[in-house]
Amino acid sequence: MPSALPAAVWRASQLGHAAVTALSSGFPALDAELPGAGWPAGMLTELIGREPGIGELRLLVPLLRPLTRERRFVVLLAPPHVPYAPALASHGIDLDYLLVVQAPNAADRLWAVEQALGSASFGALLAWLPQEKTRPEHLRRMQLAAQSAGGPVFLFRQLAAQFEASPAPLRLLLLPRPDERLSVQILKRRGPLMADPLLLDLPQPVTAIRLRASPLADPAQRPPMHASRIRPDASHAGALH
Amino acid sequence: MWWLGLFFDRLALQIARCGALAPGDGAPLAICDRLCILDADAGARALGIVAGMKRAAALALAPALLLRERDAAREQAALERLAAWALQFTPSVSLQADLPFGEHDDTPAPCGLLLEVAASLRYFGGPEALLARLRQGLRALGYTARIGTAPTAAAAWLFARHRDGLSSTAADLPATLEALPSRLLARSRAQRETLDAIGAHRVGDLLALPRAGLARRCGPALLDELDRARGQQPESRRWFEAPARFEAEIELLARVDHAEALLFAARRLVDPLAAWLAARHGALRTFVLHAIHDRRDAREDTLLTVRLAGPSRDPERLLTLLRETLAVTRLPAPVHALRLRCEEVLAQPAASASLLPAPGAARENLARLIERLQARLGARGIQRLSLAADHRPEAAYRIEAAGVHPGARAAVVHGACEGIVATSGRAVDSLARSAEVPVAAGIPVAGLPRPLWLLHEPLAIGERDNRPCWRTPLTLLAGPERIEGGWWDAALVQRDYFVAEDETHALYWIYRERLAPEGGRGGWFVHGRFG
Predict the structure, then answer these.
(1) Smallest Cα–Cα separation from B157: which of B140, B139, B145?
(2) E runs forming strands in B29-87
(3) DSSP code, position B200
């Protein structure tokens, strides 16, 4: 199947709609599968993962780096942990254009989202909403607000959310894989279903050591470490089906 | 010369109406002095209230009638605010005093403005466009004026007092003047009666009379006024200058319990404030709105402080911030009046419009977003990240309330993201490495990668079969990286950091306490996650 086909097929049934403006994700393999060949601007994109810390931020690093360099600001809404400034800087993200917004209640969060999206130099929004308190109308309101935005809007959700209906036009399921790779499965997009997940190499800080298990890792570690790494997929089987 | 005379015939009523809490608040309203009704609005007139009626009679007719006593000082202040506002049309603005509309009081009160706009006509696109803008702006402020235009100031003023929209050119000025009723020239009730008694009903009749006799009967002032109107005598006027400080107060038409309900009335203060700032070529960074409580509640005023990220005089921006401030304010008691004061003004000349987007525009946008979010979420709600020159992971970053402009910090950041790498347990002199070597943010560093997520507190984890274990056993991928530091303050850190992977292939940044601190526990901790 030619890679341009999904977008082409969709456009034919969406007469009168302008083509999606998108920003390259930095992963050619992923761009080929996304409608508009990148993260869609003015749309809600759901990134579904087991928990924070599986490589979901590094997936967005190739997008955030040029955005902040172009002086468009990136808003982190209610991040679950501390976004670690030295690591962000070592990935080349300009911290001056990163805003962390903490809002305790849902109404304030939605309001903050709408304010940020309406701003002219908006780059991207990364939002973490609590699983149990996120109601469908909140998502609809965010999707509506996102339509006026000039950049992509990412919503990080937990695994349970993959079975719920969502107004987000693009939904991705993320699973960590060995050797710092991330498996990305597109659950929903404006285009045909995608059968196989993509395997992406996550970006590294330029001089960082390539990580792999080595016997040098710790002299105190006597048992062989590879034994536990042989069965990689057992824990995900339940989450996927 | 091209003069506009603005006669505010219902000034007192409109000042009182500024205290309305919603657009189209039509509660019947009347202006009175100690005894009588002086003026009534449409709602009150529909109930049968007319000027000259006794107060008691009016209240008997309409018990719900809102009565406001006339206050000359307040009218003067309102007129000065209007004059400051009118400075946007021309620098030649002059206050005009005249007889009050009441029949019982002969003290002149200011009730109009005179604008000399000949030099502004071209800029505003002609007299019609200028007048339309003037009227629209006045309406937005809550006022209406009768406007007359003429080549002389005195004639423009007579026209405005006679009828709205009366206009004449130099050629038909004498004819238009002669058709005006002569009562307009009278300076007191006695003078008006004299004019009626001698049968001079029109200005033309006056002009037909011998000058000497007329001067003897009515005083020379009337003749001078007439000569100035006809352009036969020069006129010197005192030009208005915007005062050095701004202060305005409005009395609300009803008591207000909820802060958000104050917004509509506050616009009546913020718009003149913005006009005053424009007239002084200034901008402000902070302003305070006093919500004044009823005297019965004996409370201090509630202060609503609005702070801007950068100086501005844009009324929409000020109002947006005020709205968010009001949304999070709880009033301790009902409010009956609002006062806005501004004394500190920063000079800000008008910005030139630019064809191409200015490079500073993005920063300006960001600053405005921050101030808007802060107005509602509080200063701690919006945070910025920055690097700090420290080797301890928990001290190598700073989270601060975003109050500064982006880029306001020093462009050079010290080598904060630089860690100490001691893969073979080799001690590294932390002081030597933290020497003040400027490293631009983002320059890659040596050592193990840092995680994008740092836990708020290191999380103690267990150990199984000599391996750190959290949910599943962890596999160490890289390390150790020894980090030592903090002997200079209370938080001494002696740790060996590793990158570990669990069985689901999520990566963790974990460390082992090298020496268990006093009172603390040793063993393994998760400190970060590779997001």
Answers:
(1) B145
(2) 29-32, 37-40, 66-69
(3) -
- Listed in sequence order, the residues at least 6 apart from B10 whose beta carbon sits closer than 8 Å to its beta carbon are B39, B41, B144
Q: Which residues of A touch B466 (CB under 8 A)?
A: 220-223
pLDDT per residue as tens digits for the range A223-239: 443 433 333 343 443 33
For position A42, what pLDDT does the model report? Answer: 84
What are the CA-CA distances from residue A207 to residues A87, A216, B63, B436 (Å)? Answer: 12, 20, 83, 21
Give me the percent of chain A exceeding a pLDDT of 70. 76
Residue among A84, A108, A209, A236 with most chain B CBs within 10 A, to mutate: A84
pLDDT for the residue A38: 86
Crossing angle of helices B263-279/B127-141, nearest 10°?
140
Measured between beta carbons, the chain B residues lying within 8 angstroms of A206 are 444
Give the number of other CB atoms < 10 A from CB of residue B302: 18
Instruction: Mark yes or no for CB contact A83/B385 under 8 Å.
Output: yes
> CB of A4 within 8 Å of any CB in chain B?
no
Quick count: other Cβ atoms within 10 Å of Cβ B512?
Answer: 19
Residue pair A220/A205 in contact (Cβ under 8 Å)? The answer is no
> What kind and span of H or E run contains B454?
strand B453-464
Entry field: residues in chain B: 531
Tell me the HSE value of B441 on the side-chain side, using a 13 A CA sphere. Answer: 27
At A231 the pLDDT is: 39
SS3 A51: coil
Cis preceding linkage at B480, omega within 30: yes
Whether pLDDT at A149 is above 70:
yes
Q: Does pLDDT of A22 surpass 60? A: yes
Residues of chain B with pLDDT under 50: 100-104, 106, 404-445
d(C-alpha B388, C-alpha A175), whole Å: 33
Tokens 């203060």 -> residue = B269
Q: What is the DSSP letter of B36?
A: B
Q: Which amino acid is at A97?
A: Y
Contact A90 B445 (CB under 8 A): yes
Q: Does A128 touch chain B (CB under 8 A)?
A: no
- CB of A147 within 8 Å of a chain B CB? The answer is no
SS3 A166: coil
N residues, chain A:
241
CA distance A241 to B18: 65
Q: Which residue of A has its CA nearest to B441?
A: A89
Cα of A94 to nearest chain B Cα, Å? 7
Q: How many CB atoms lie within 10 A of CB B126?
A: 11
Nearest CB among B372, B387, B508 relative to A86 is that of: B387
Which of these, A101, A49, A91, lies nearest to A68 by C-alpha position?
A91
**Residues of A with CB below 8 A from B480's CB?**
218
Burial (CB count within 10 angstroms: exposed 0-12, middle 13-18, buried 19+), residue B194 = middle
What's residue B147's pLDDT? 92
Tell me which of B517 and A8 has the higher pLDDT: B517
Distance from the A240 Cα atom to the nearest Cα atom in chain B, whole angstroms? 14
From first CA to last CA, the distance across chain A in angstroms is 27
Residue to test with chain B: of A50, A95, A221, most B Cβ within 10 A: A95
pLDDT at B134: 92
Residue among A50, A83, A121 whose CB faces B452 most closely: A83
Verify whether the Cβ–Cβ distance B453 to A82 is below 8 Å. Answer: yes
- Tens of pLDDT, residue by residue over B118-153, are 998 999 998 899 999 999 999 988 898 999 999 999
ipTM, 2 dp:
0.79
**How many CB atoms neighbour CB A14 within 10 A?**
12
Chain B, nearest residue to A113 by Cα:
B373
3-state secondary structure of B48: coil
